[in-house]
Amino acid sequence: MSRIAYVNGRYCAQSEASVNIEDRGYQFGDGIYEVIHIHEGRFVDTDLHLARLARSLREIAIPAPMDDAALLVVLREVVRRNRVHEGIVYMQITRGVARRDHAFPRHVRPALVITARHGAAFPRDLASWAGSAITVPDIRWGRCDVKTVNLLANCLAKQKAREAGCYEAILIDRDGMVTEGSSTTVWAVDAAGVLRTRHLDDHILPGCTRAALTTLLHEAGIGFEERGLTEAEFRAAREIFLTSATSFVKPIVRLDGSPVADGAPGPVTARLFELFARHADGPAHNTANRLAPDATGRLATDAAGRLAPAAGIG
User: Fold this and answer.
1) 147 is catalytic
2) In Å, how far are 30, 112, 148, 167, 180 from 125, measured between CA atoms?
3) For labelling, which of 77, 94, 101, 258 has a CA lying 20 to 30 Å from the CA of 38?
């Protein structure tokens, strides 16, 4: 069965879909995008993704082509027509079609493209889901908090990871601080046992899976800190894992060819993998807000290094 796409008001065979050669997304990268995970036929963290979509549009002054209710109707129809039970739905909005000129054109309608594709089922075995990563310099632009289609630097980083046989490239800025992965949020349990991820600013994307996970951490009574990691702290970490709409909670057990700690997923990652799996298995419209960490930023462990039970977690 041919895949079906939605392109500027029309459902069509994806093999026949097209956009104008003067679309500003094609010529300038003047557009934004979102990806939502589909699990058992349901969207995961829909509200978070639609909120980030709206923010990205505002930040680069593109009007929304339709309201959220109408957009959800189209998203569901694309998924239905493609019979996707496990996979992703992708949406891209550009400023539209106009004569090539760097300045924004006037009276132009934004262009909307939506596609869906099948993907692997949600992982259930943590050890087999684990991956490896390399580190590379962060050479991206100054507004990485906007989810634009300008991804050349990310592609170059990801390609280096692929050539090294790794899942991800983790970016280090000119100050020697970890920012994020080429397509993921980076987390680590540092040498002191504190779960950390970089604070939100213009240099990283506000991940929707990150936002969902911070809510789960809060609800489970698990402390964490939004505080950047130096490259040295990162290399000394007890555990490293990534989050994203398609990485979920993914352990990184090798970094630049060396094992992270003992080279196996750690207890913190295992707990959070379990928490997020329960979340993904939950209601169709999972919502979460970015919450402040608690005062300690530490995770309680027993003598064997396992996570102690937290309030509200069975």
Assistant:
1) yes
2) 40, 37, 33, 17, 25
3) 94
